Amino acid sequence: MTQRPDPQPIEHEHPAAAAQAALQQRVEARLASSEPDVEVLAVELAGSRRSPVLRVFVDRPEGVDLGVCTRVTNQLRDLLDDYGVEVSSPGPERPLSKPAHYRRYLGQRVRVRTHDQIEGRKDFKGELIDADDEAVAVAGESGTIRIPLQRIRRSNLISSAGRTS
User: Fold this and answer.
1) Cβ distance 124 to 140 under 8 Å?
2) Core-most of 2, 100, 151, 160, by most CB within 10 Å?
3) Do 139 and 111 reside in the same domain of the chain?
4) For the chain, how are helix, strand and coil distributed in percent, rounded to 5?
5) How many CB atoms are located within 10 Å of the residue 155 CB?
6) What is the mean pLDDT for each group of 10 consecutive residues in the chain (165 residues)?
7) Are 27 and 81 in a shared domain?
8) How many angstroms separate the CA atoms of 155 and 93, rounded?
9) What pTM, to 2 d.p., does this model score?
10) Is residue 63 part of a domain?
């Protein structure tokens, strides 16, 4: 009996991920000169086709207040023609979207949702145990899984508030 090699996953970027990444780069470029101390944590497309919403999560060393959100919204004013724009602070369930974000929160509990299934699942919760420029590793109840960054749809820290150990 001949053993077939394991099929290699096709590594391609999901179209929605590509659109979201392009919007994030556009937002980051816009804010780089006008709000250099503001870090764009994540840009998410939400809403419907008829009423698309661009959610922009920002942070800065001094924290985010209404003034920061207003200034960022004003810098993105031209996007209001195509999207409703929501700008907010990350909150306790901070979004993670870049390799540096993942590395900063190693050892923390995270939730990672993927565009397509990996080992039969699209939703992973557990401890973030590794992160590099290609993938993250999450140790959960069903073991450790390595998830390529390009397959991640959305991820965030899991707040410890309300959890019992």
Assistant:
1) yes
2) 151
3) yes
4) 25, 40, 35
5) 23
6) 37 65 89 93 88 92 93 91 91 91 95 94 96 96 93 90 46
7) yes
8) 9
9) 0.73
10) yes
